[in-house]
What does this fold into?
Amino acid sequence: MKPARTRDGSLRRKAYQFIQQQVLSGRLRAGSAISEVGLAKQIGVSRTPVREAIGQLVAEGFLEQIPGRGAVVIQPEREDILELYELREALEVYAVGKVARQRLRSADSAALHAACEEIRAMAEGLRRSGRERLDEAEMQRFLATDLRFHMLLLRMAGNRRMMKVVADTRLLTRVFSYRREGHDAALLDRIYQYHHGVLEAIEAGDAARAMERLGEHIRVSMQERLETYERWEREHELNRIMPLPTSVLAQLEPQGGAPPAPPRPRVRSGAGRTAP
Amino acid sequence: MKPARTRDGSLRRKAYQFIQQQVLSGRLRAGSAISEVGLAKQIGVSRTPVREAIGQLVAEGFLEQIPGRGAVVIQPEREDILELYELREALEVYAVGKVARQRLRSADSAALHAACEEIRAMAEGLRRSGRERLDEAEMQRFLATDLRFHMLLLRMAGNRRMMKVVADTRLLTRVFSYRREGHDAALLDRIYQYHHGVLEAIEAGDAARAMERLGEHIRVSMQERLETYERWEREHELNRIMPLPTSVLAQLEPQGGAPPAPPRPRVRSGAGRTAP
DNA sequence: CGTTAGTATATCGTATGCAAGTGCGTACGT
DNA sequence: ACGTACGCACTTGCATACGATATACTAACG
It folds into this structure.
């Protein structure tokens, strides 16, 4: 009970990261309610830091507070994907336009080229290995590299707030895709082409082209994401009608699941979302 | 001590609005440190809701937390104005493009026209009155009308997150301008022209023109804001060398608020008086 | 058998107590 | 007189206690 007062907001951060991990990794499913006390016990701290962490996550859009129920993980809807990608498009396109209009520092150029080439290398490596898709670790690395490219552009635009909004947005996007299959070589190629095209346009000082390219890149990504979402949605829908036995579910989800194993098999009555 | 438990976060809201008011109205000067206990006593609640309110305001960018010092009101810098307006430009321009590409509902059109005309009417009224500038109440009304026009556009674009970011951004912008002189008729005219032009382009379905117009409008606004900021900055600099007597300051700042009205001294740093 | 009232419990919002870190003033020693 | 070290009062972070409320379950009644 006395885990060494650390004076910094350590416990709060701990709680924050814990919950965020739970959400991002999918251990906490969308719609599942979490209570302050439960989490506090799990993490081993009191309600206060947990409460603050929850408040922050609500503000950031990961959780939603329902009056008598507690905080629940947001139900990702199709509309949300659209909104998040639109936000990215608006900001990143603006930023790349600004970057293209200013002179590119050589160090920045090098960093962009590196991030760009790394993706090409991954595609090549994948082809050489003979496998079809990136495995989980490679996928993580790809995501980091992709993120680096985009965030580098944002940073060069020199607007910290814009950077933060996009960063938050991208983090939030991950909630929708905690389980998706790895990219294949063709997709990596396409992404590389887009990135490379944007970079080329920037170095040519052609702002309009850079903006158009990047915008298209983001729109295409959104399209792909929407498709995987809809696929997932169909499976989920099916699951709602004929739920799989828990033993099978456990195999499908090799996560180290919830230890306390909620004693109450709560079924959310009336998840009244009307799909179009 | 027993102010009617309202079950919602009433006290927290109270604290939030109180502090926000203090900051927006300029009663709490930039850089002044505020403490949880001091505020709690002023508002008449305990530390907890105040603490949460402060947390939210920090997250929203109104306050900044400094380790050993507490929370201080942000020091608005020139760079911040640039960033905030850039953000608005990126998002609003994107939104107006989207709106122009879709069909405008007649109700929306009417609302936009109304917001547009209201500004023209204000310009006309000002001219008719023979006065030079808008007084404070009129200025408030103008700001509300201007905000309404812009937010209507955002709403029509149908992206709630985008709307929220812009709303927060505009609110934050007000920290920089809690004291500025009212617009004159010529400025109102210019603003009207921009709004009208945007609206015209939207109704013509000319997305590119609408975007260009709105972008220019925002850039011009930023320019004006920068100039007033620099003017203010010069005065502030002068103030630092030769501060005005508090009696004069009191006249410059028409306080309305606190019922208990403890003789609050100028809290610059430290302070924390246990008064009543 | 269905409906309603009562109770029990989980949940939140708020208040308060306690411990730790930091800056500033002061007093003491050289 | 100057430098140093101590102490105090301030600050936050965390834990816990308390009160109110809404939901869910149960039991009794029409």
Observations:
- Residues 18 and 37 of chain A are 14 Å apart (CA to CA).
- The beta strands of chain A are 33-34, 63-66, 70-73.
- Chain A has ten helices and three strands.
- The longest strand of chain A covers residues 63-66.
